[in-house]
Amino acid sequence: MQVRPDNPLIVQGDGKILLEAKHKKYEEVRDFLSRFAELEASPELLHTYKVSPLSLWNAAASGVKPEDIVEKLKGFSKFAVPKDVIEDIEDLLSRYGLVQLIPHPKKPKTKIRLRFSTAYVAKVVTEDPRLRSIIKPDQKRHWCIDKGHRGLFKQRALLSRWPVQDLAGFTDGDPLDVTLSPVMKSNKKPFAPRDYQIEAAQRWFQEGRPSGGCGVVVLACGAGKTIVGITAMSLVQRKTLILATNQASVNQWIREILDKTDLDASMVGGYTGQTKEVKPVTVATYQILTWRRSRNDDFEHLHVFDDEDWGLVIYDEVHLLPAPVFGATASLQGRRRLGLTATLIREDGREGDVFSLVGPKRYELPWQRLQKRGFIAKTSCYEVRIPFPPKQAEQYENATSQKKFRIACANPAKYTVIRKLVKKHKKDNVLIIGTYVDQLVTISKQLRAPLITGKTPQRDRERLFENFRKGKSKVLVVSKVANFSIDLPDANIAIQVSGTFGSRQEEAQRLGRILRPKKTEARFYSIVTKDSKEQEFAHNRQMFLTEQGYRYHIKTEDTYLV
Q: Where are the beta strands (DSSP E) in 273-400?
């Protein structure tokens, strides 16, 4: 067996891939692995990746071929790649597209035809217990499904390891003339989408191809996913429904659309708890669409999906798609769908439903590549580990496992560290982000800094955000409401004081609050109680960002100001 000790990879028989983190080819190999594998563990010297069926099918949908992966794995590996691993990769990648949905030649309004790569695949799929109840014979030697079962079929097929390629096409929707403006209306400066934003929208649209018009674009926070969505609107030229995470995000979408297209306020409306405007471009919150008076009542606003002839539905922060919206999306498979996100990670494990119902990953650009080009801020990450005071240490030791994490997050020793960090960065624009409101209230009082939580009225939120943008306040304390879609371009310091267990998506979103391009380097501090449950969860939280090339500098209470 040929051994190449200077190479950075070891591919194990169980499919796990080990990458030397200090190797000179680390960045090149990391970017290669990120196309089809997921980071599972990231100790300092050796990172472990796993290959999952879904990660391979997303790669296949974006055009990656089995030979692209196998040849590079062999080229980067220290030892021969196990034959079983090669066969598994080739088998899983090749499964994408073996089952296709195509327009029905005679009943396009009510039926969708199935196309199978071979008679064997047709036999296995049509006899699958999950699928046979919705598959119907269709003339001689053909099969079909009812048009209303399009989403359900794709969901069930994925569970049976048949990633469906949907080529059945889309309803056009009402026309809408959308032209990108060459000049921003807000400041009269020239405007044009960046090259990667155009490429992302075009990869998604795939003009003239039946596979285009559905799928997900993955870009770092601060990289301009909103511009990708607006560019997609200009390509589709159809009435558009945009779903966003909160009122601030709705306002941001409306501002950007009015600023960077030829549409005026009569054409763009918000559908939220505050307003109920349905216009040719409508921006709604997930919260209003999933609102109901009680658990047993119907969702009163989901009718927005069906009342208008939408030609495009955009899902902002698609990794947060609520379960009821998945249900509505299953019936919207005839509409073009664009998902925008910084990470495909879902903490509820429903990445497969995003793949089936919104579409596969169409475009992704590594965060570090964006940073090197100056499109997102250069950022250093620090994990500051502090001990318990004696009283809290005793309380922690005597607590149940469930309560240990909360006690560690609330460690009062954090307050001293926060004050010193704020003093160190007194000339900077500092966001202090946490999960527990009582902790944030204390920080706000100690620093005499404004606080925004879920209970802060929307008008007050906008005023406080605007004061921070204009430099009237240099420190802003925020709860989870600021995790998503808050445009604070001058924020360059984030101090995370508590988080949601091991949420990788939350860690990425919080870092994203300081990633807007700026002249100064940004810093992200995460303050954790050492040798506690919080430290364990912190490692899990950092996994996605580690995969993107960020390294956390571990500091103790004596060194955190370095």
A: 281-285, 312-316, 336-341, 361-364, 379-386
Question: In the 8-state DSSP scheme, what is residue 217?
Answer: E
Burial class (CB in 10 A: 0-12, 13-18, 19+), 185: middle
Give helix 247-260 / helix 225-236 axis angle, nearest 10°.
60
Strand ranges (E), 232-387: 240-244, 268-271, 281-285, 312-316, 336-341, 361-364, 379-386
Identify which of 251, 171, 243 has the alpha carbon closest to the alpha carbon of residue 213.
171
For residues 391 and 193, is the Cβ–Cβ distance under 8 A? no
User: What is the signed CA dihedral for 190, 193, 194, 195, rounded to 10 degrees?
Assistant: -130
The domains spanning 195-365 and 372-556 adopt the same CATH topology: yes
CB within 8 Å of 552: residues ≥ 6 apart: 381, 382, 383, 526, 542, 546
Global pTM reads: 0.89
In this model, does residue 326 exceed pLDDT 60?
A: yes
Contact between 452 and 477 (Cβ < 8 Å): yes
Higher pLDDT, 440 or 209: 440
Mean pLDDT of 68-91: 94
Name the average pLDDT for the chain. 90
pLDDT of 360-416, one tens digit each?
Answer: 999 988 888 899 899 999 999 999 999 999 888 999 999 998 899 999 999 999 999
Two structure tokens written together for 522: 């940004």
**Which numeric CATH code is attached to 372-556?**
3.40.50.300
- Residues sharing a CB contact under 8 Å with residue 207, sequence separation 6 or more, in sequence order: 235
Tell me the Cα Rg of the chain. 25
pLDDT higher than 60, residue 106: yes
Question: Which region holds residue 168: left if phi is over 0, alpha if psi is between -120 and 50, else beta?
Answer: alpha
- How are strands ordered across the β-sheet holding 522-529? 451-452, 475-478, 430-433, 493-496, 522-529, 379-386, 552-556
* Domain segments of the chain as ranges: 9-95, 99-166, 195-365, 372-556
| Helices vs strands, H then E, count in the chain | 22, 23
Say which amino acid occupies 519.
K
Q: Are 20 and 46 spatial neighbours (Cβ–Cβ below 8 Å)?
A: yes
Is residue 351 within 8 Å of residue 269, measured between CB atoms? no
| 8 Å CB contact between 233 and 240 | yes
- What is the DSSP-derived secondary structure letter of residue 393? H
User: How far is CA 515 from each of CA 73, 380, 494, rounded to the nearest angstrom?
Assistant: 32, 11, 10
Give pLDDT tens digits for 120-160: 999 999 999 999 999 999 988 899 999 999 999 999 999 99
Q: For the domain 195-365, what is the CATH superfamily, name and number? A: P-loop containing nucleotide triphosphate hydrolases (3.40.50.300)
